[in-house]
Amino acid sequence: MRRKRRRKNVTAAEAMGGEEDPKEESHQGPSTLADVREEYGPAVEDLGVSEEEDLYRGAEELIQGPVKHAGPEALFEVTLPKVEDRCSLEPMLDILSYSESEWKGNTTKSTLIRTGYTKLSQRFGSLRQVRGDNYCALRATLFQVLSTSTQPPIWLQVEHISTWAEELEAREGLIGQWMFPSECRQGDGSEDAVQQLKRYMELLQNRWQAAVGCSSAEERQRLCERVFQGGEEELGLLEALKLLMLVRASEFHTTMQEGGDVPVFCWLLYARDSSDCPRTFLANHLSRVGFSGGLEQVEMFLLGYALQCTIQVYRLYMTDTEEFVTYYPDDHKEDWPCVCLVTEDDRHYNVPVGQPNGL
């Protein structure tokens, strides 16, 4: 049976980490390769070629029984989709159908989550499941930003974002040990971390401007389908978001030291023993995102401020409470664009899309 771990309820004021809580009700067993990847091993993109072959071969056998292959070449050519052919978001599913299939039974937890999905279905008709690795919060947010943007944020137009990595390295020496996923190989080896992040920031700027320049929502959707394919382009964009978060975190820390006003979440961000300054925030938290951990609640606030975008999240395990719908941040709902995500546990995030059924 598939087992997922859940995070205890965490309010914005308590968003300083948290322990995990076993899910009350198990899902059905794996029925697709994606399900097996999620349950039985790390994301394929984090594995070497030989490990990937073993994972897929084991996954095939788990689902269909032993499968005979002519060799590694036949395995990849005949059986397996290439990474670049797999979108990081699954096709649209009807929200209520998904809810009924994933949350069977009459336990308190199942009933609560189904109720949350029913309320969500009053605004959206469909759900797109996001690849279940530790980038999912960043991936879901960026997908929604690019697929809905009609104009770039001010900072993207007026600030020289391609120089941020170099400036941060010169000022605080934070970039030299940056960790990149295996897909983000440094070309011929002549490119250092600063240069690589500069390239990814320029890519973020170009893709955002391309999305804004699309003539219709359908064209923006097609652009996103091409971008979110799990390769270097997608992961490079997600690393650029991490750099953007670090830049904003550094700016807020400087303001705090100078006695200036900062958003309330900054005091929570830097009150943690493991994150008392930008260096420890990067070393103990941000550098792990995409590898061994996702974003904590307090870091969702930072992501919203970094993008200058309000992230509205339907938190289904908080259904029928005042925290069912949470905004990251909640003080710019009127003047920043808003994107919407959904989570069952504050750990994994999916994307609600489309009009409610019947509209």
TrEMBL record:
Location in the cell: Cytoplasm
InterPro entries: FAM105 (IPR023235), OTULINL (IPR023236)
GO cellular component: cytoplasm
Region annotated Disordered, chain positions: 1-44
Domain of life: Eukaryota
GO molecular function: cysteine-type deubiquitinase activity
Keyword Cytoplasm (UniProt): yes
Protein's GO biological process: protein linear deubiquitination
Keywords from the named record: Cytoplasm
Pfam families reported for this sequence: Peptidase_C101
Main location (coarse class): cytoplasm
PANTHER family in the cross-refs: FIBROUS SHEATH CABYR-BINDING PROTEIN-LIKE-RELATED, OTU DEUBIQUITINASE WITH LINEAR LINKAGE-SPECIFICITY A-RELATED
Record family assignment: Belongs to the peptidase C65 family. Otulin subfamily.
Protein name per UniProt: OTU deubiquitinase with linear linkage specificity
Organism ancestry: Eukaryota, Metazoa, Chordata, Craniata, Vertebrata
